[in-house]
Structure formats: C-alpha cells, structure tokens
C-alpha cells in the first residue's frame, strides 16, 4: 500500500504544512499556473510593481516557495532574500535559481525570522500568510525586520465582494479545482487544504485591521481578479526624532 499523502488542515501545524509543501515543490509553479488559469503571473507582476524594487535595496520575499516571485524582484538589481519554511521548496529554488548573484535562499519561520531588526527596505509575502499558524505574529515579525519608512506588500487570496461572482468562484473551487488538481498535482489532497484555507481566510478589511494592529501605517489594499486576490500595502513608521 502506498503511503498516504501529506495533507495539512486548518490547524496549520507547521510540520504538516511544511511537509505538504515539500511534497509538491517540483511541480508547484506549474500546478499553480494551471489552477489559477494563468492569473498567478498577473498577480506576481502586480506584486512586483507594488514592491517597486530598486538597485541598492534589500528585500525579503517571505513564503517565497521555489523563488518565482523572488526572481521577478531580483530583476531590478535589488538584493533579494527568498525565505520559506519548507526545505523542499528552498532546495528546489536553489536548484532552479541558485546562479542569480543577488538572490539568496534561506529557510525561515515567518513567526520567528532569523534576521536583525531593521534589516530590509521592503518585505513581501505572496499566498503564504494564510498558511501561517499565527499570522498576526508574522505581521509583527515582518515589521521588526523592516527599516523605518520601509514597506510591506501582502498578496493573498481574499473574499470577492460581489455575491454573484463569489458564488461562481466557490463553485470553481469546490467542483472544478479538485478535479483539475488530481490530474496535474502529485498531491491533490494538498489542494483540498488550499480550498479550505481560502474559505477560512478573513476578508480584506479584517487583514487590513490586523496589519494596523501589528504597527503598520498607511494601510491600503486593492482587489485583483474581482477580489479573488487582494494586494495589501503599508509602511513602517519612521522613528521619532531624538528630543
């Protein structure tokens, strides 16, 4: 009998979530492109524009997976650190992109980042905050490692505001996505978790409130693909001048 595939649940045990992503790492990017109908590339481009990376900056790309988003950021000439808590994803990223000189890969827990205070000009996380067992703690950690005046960009699945469109979206996730996932993924059960975690994730206003609670200011968001995804942006307050 073949072993049961590793499948996370809404308890989001870090070891199970990490193990699940280890299993799907080799085909992860291709599967995402198929299941998102190619929209993942549009979302990545929008995130890169929002981060606005520039040469001379240091940027943390958290939950970077195999590094597709990190490569897009590194194209600006900025120094990019791709961090993920899945060893399998990090290994696959190094295999694919290890030759890029201004891109490095680090295994890291979003709730206890292995970086100094004020280490990055910008931090970004795409489709990863939803998988963290303590997302508010992760937002606080990202604030800690960002320089005063630096930026955060969070790209995450969200809740479409249109009731009619949301119904179509749920039908796709509940009925179509599982069938397609079985044909293109080595661990279709992982995408059952994906669907569950999207349903359980809060709406745009709630995530914005979490960011403010963590200490971020100038919090704003805009919807992508009718609200399937939301792009949240904020700034770390500048330090107060010495008195």
Structure, described:
This protein is α/β, with parallel strands linked by helices and 243 residues long. The chain has one domain: Vaccinia Virus protein VP39 (Rossmann fold, 3-Layer(aba) Sandwich), CATH 3.40.50.150. It is 44% helix and 21% strand. It contains nine helices and seven strands, in the order αααβαβαββαβαααββ. Strands 3-2-1-4-5-7-6 form a seven-stranded mixed beta sheet, sandwiched between helices. Strand 6 and strand 7 form a beta hairpin. Helix 2 packs antiparallel against helix 7, helix 3 packs across helix 4 and helix 6 crosses helix 9. The longest helix has 22 residues. 42% of the residues are buried. The N terminus is likely disordered. GO terms for molecular function: methyltransferase activity. InterPro entries: SAM-dependent_MTases_sf (IPR029063), UbiE/COQ5_MeTrFase (IPR004033), UbiE/COQ5_MeTrFase_CS (IPR023576).
């Amino acid at each position: 009998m073949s072993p049961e595939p590793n499948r996370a649940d809404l308890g989001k045990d870090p070891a199970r979530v990490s193990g699940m992503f280890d299993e799907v790492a080799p085909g992860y990017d291709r599967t995402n492109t198929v299941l998102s109908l190619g929209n993942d590339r549009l979302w990545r481009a929008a995130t890169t524009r929002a981060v606005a990376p520039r040469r001379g900056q240091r940027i943390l790309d958290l939950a970077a997976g195999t590094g597709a988003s990190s490569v897009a950021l590194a194209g600006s000439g900025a120094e990019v650190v791709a961090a993920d808590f899945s060893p399998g994803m990090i290994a696959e990223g190094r295999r694919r992109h290890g030759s890029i000189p201004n891109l490095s890969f680090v295994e890291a827990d979003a709730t206890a980042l292995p970086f100094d205070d004020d280490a990055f000009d910008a931090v970004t996380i795409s489709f990863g905050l939803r998988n963290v067992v303590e997302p508010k703690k992760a937002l606080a950690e990202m604030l800690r490692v960002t320089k005063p005046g630096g930026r955060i960009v969070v790209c995450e699945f969200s809740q479409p505001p249109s009731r009619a469109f949301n119904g179509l979206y749920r039908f796709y996730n509940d009925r179509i996505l599982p069938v397609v996932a079985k044909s293109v993924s080595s661990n279709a059960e992982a995408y059952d978790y994906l669907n569950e975690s999207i349903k359980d994730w809060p709406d745009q206003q709630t995530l914005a409130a979490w960011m403010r609670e963590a200490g971020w200011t100038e919090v704003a968001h805009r919807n992508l693909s009718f609200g399937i995804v939301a792009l949240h942006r904020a700034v770390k307050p500048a330090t107060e001048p010495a008195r």
